[in-house]
Amino acid sequence: MATLVLVRHGQSVANLANVFTGWLDVALTPQGEAEARQAGAKLRALHFDQAYCSTLVRSRRTLELILEQLHQATVPVHAAEALRERMYGALQGLNKAETIRQYGLTQVNTWRRSYEDAPPEGETLHHTQQRVVAYYEQEIAPQLRRGRHVLVVSHGNTLRALRMQLEGLSVAQVEALEIPTGGVRVYELDSALAIGQMRDL
Ligand SMILES: O=C(O)[C@@H](CO)OP(=O)(O)O
C-alpha cells in the first residue's frame, strides 16, 4: 500500500491580511508555523520516501517544519513550479473584503471558486488543474505505483484541483470544497492507484 499525504501550507501573512495571494511569495505567520508543526505532529506514524512542495516560500517552509517535527529532515524534497498556487492575475495583492465591496460577493465568489471562470488576467481552476495533474502523473504517481510514501505540501486551489482528479469530484463539489491552512488529507492507494482509504487528520 502506498500513502499519499496532501497538506496545505500554514497561514501566510497574506491569508492573515485577507489578501489575494496567488503567485505572490509571502512568508508564514507565527500561527502558520505552528499549523505546520501541528501537521507534522499528526503524521508521526509515517515515514516518507519523497516529499514535494511548490517553489513558493510558504509551501517550502511548511514542508521544512513538518519534516523537522518528524525528525525526517533527510527525506528527498522536490520544489516544483507546477505546484504553485493558482495565478490570481489582477486580484493578487488586493484585499478580499475590499474587492467584494467593489465588485459584489457573487462576482468575487465566482473568481475565487468557479472551475471555468478566470479572475482577470489569472488562471481558471481548470487550467491550474491541468498543470498540477500533469505533474502528479509524471512525477508523483510513479512513486506511488512503487508503494512509496509521499508527502505533498501545496496550496488551497492547487489541492482543490488535485483532489477533484483523485477523488472524482464533480464541478459542483470542487466549487464547494474549502481546505483549511495546515489541513492534512491522507490516502492509502493500491499499486493501480485505487483509493483504499482517505481521511482528514
Ligand atoms: O489568495 C489565494 O491565493 C487563495 C488561497 O489563499 O485564496 P482563495 O481562498 O480566495 O482562493
TrEMBL record:
Pathway assigned in UniProt: Carbohydrate degradation; glycolysis; pyruvate from D-glyceraldehyde 3-phosphate: step 3/5
Amino acids binding substrate: 8-15, 21-22, 58, 85-88, 96, 112-113, 156-157
Leading EC class: isomerase
Keyword Protein biosynthesis among UniProt keywords: no
Gene Ontology biological process terms in this record: gluconeogenesis; glycolytic process
Pfam families: His_Phos_1 (PF00300)
InterPro entries: His_Pase_superF_clade-1, His_PPase_superfam, PG/BPGM_mutase_AS, Phosphogly_mut1
Entry annotated with the keyword Isomerase: yes
UniProt xrefs under CDD domains: HP_PGM_like
GO terms for MF: phosphoglycerate mutase activity
Highest taxon above the source species: Bacteria
Keywords associated with the record: Gluconeogenesis, Glycolysis, Isomerase
List of catalytic residues: 9 (tele-phosphohistidine intermediate), 85 (proton donor/acceptor)
EC number, as in UniProt: 5.4.2.11
Transmembrane regions listed in the UniProt entry: none
Gene3D superfamilies named in the record: Phosphoglycerate mutase-like
Reaction(s) this enzyme catalyzes, per UniProt: (2R)-2-phosphoglycerate = (2R)-3-phosphoglycerate
Residue numbers marked as site, Transition state stabilizer: 155
PANTHER family: PHOSPHOGLYCERATE MUTASE (PTHR11931)
Function of the protein: Catalyzes the interconversion of 2-phosphoglycerate and 3-phosphoglycerate.
HAMAP family, alphabetized: PGAM_GpmA
Similarity section: Belongs to the phosphoglycerate mutase family. BPG-dependent PGAM subfamily.
Protein name: 2,3-bisphosphoglycerate-dependent phosphoglycerate mutase
Gene that this polypeptide is encoded by: gpmA
